[in-house]
Write a structure and sequence with these properties.
By secondary structure, the protein is of the alpha/beta class. The chain is 39% helix and 25% strand. It folds into two domains: 71 residues, Transcription elongation factor, GreA/GreB, N-terminal domain (Helix Hairpins), CATH 1.10.287; 65 residues, Chitinase A, domain 3, CATH 3.10.50. Strand 6 and strand 7 form a beta hairpin. Strands 5-4-3-7-6 form a five-stranded mixed sheet. A two-stranded parallel sheet has the order 1-2. One of its GO terms (molecular function) is translation elongation factor activity. InterPro entries: GreA/GreB_C_sf, TF_GreA/GreB_CS, Tscrpt_elong_fac_GreA, Tscrpt_elong_fac_GreA/B, Tscrpt_elong_fac_GreA/B_C, Tscrpt_elong_fac_GreA/B_fam, Tscrpt_elong_fac_GreA/B_N, Tscrpt_elong_fac_GreA/B_N_sf. Belongs to the GreA/GreB family.
Length: 157
């Protein structure tokens, strides 16, 4: 089965690469040392320090595998959006909520980099799904957790 592509900005890719490097070079060494020290306490069958270190090791190794898979499937986004004039990954979009009269600007990103507090929304979020592929002037219905709303696309950068 083909693995799903993961869309990341250059900064997002760099952060994941740095995290992977840190886990492989620093955390692995630290945990190996904790395991070594815990073994010195004697019987590992009832050694909570040893058990804790082994659990942390399993968690770190799982995260390393997850990061390696993500990086293997990463596709870099550019922040200029779709050249077709339609909303796409990497587009910066200004929309108006027609029900409330409020305007918002969002950057459309992949799910790993979504952060609504920073106006970075996923293409798989309710608003992202509704506006993907649309052009300036389009009015779309958004099926959001707080209820349905209508938005109009004002600008695409």
């Amino acid at each position: 089965m083909a693995e799903k592509e993961v869309y990341l900005s250059r900064d997002g890719l760099k952060k994941l690469e740095q995290e992977l490097e840190y886990l492989k070079t620093v955390r692995r060494r630290e945990i190996a040392e904790r395991i070594r020290q815990a073994r010195e306490y004697g019987d590992i069958a009832e050694n909570s320090e040893y058990e804790d270190a082994k659990n942390e090791q399993a968690f770190i190794e799982g995260r390393i595998l997850q990061l390696e898979k993500t990086l293997r499937n990463a596709r870099i986004l550019t922040e200029n959006g779709s050249p077709s004039g339609r909303v796409g990954l990497g587009s910066r979009v200004r929309i108006r909520n027609l029900d409330l009269g409020e305007e918002e600007e969002y950057l459309i990103v992949g799910t790993l980099e979504a952060n609504p507090a920073e106006n970075r929304i996923s293409d798989e979020s309710p608003v992202g799904r509704a506006i993907m592929g649309q052009k300036v002037g389009a009015i779309v219905e958004v099926d959001a957790p707080a209820g349905a709303m209508r938005v109009q696309i004002l600008e695409i950068h």
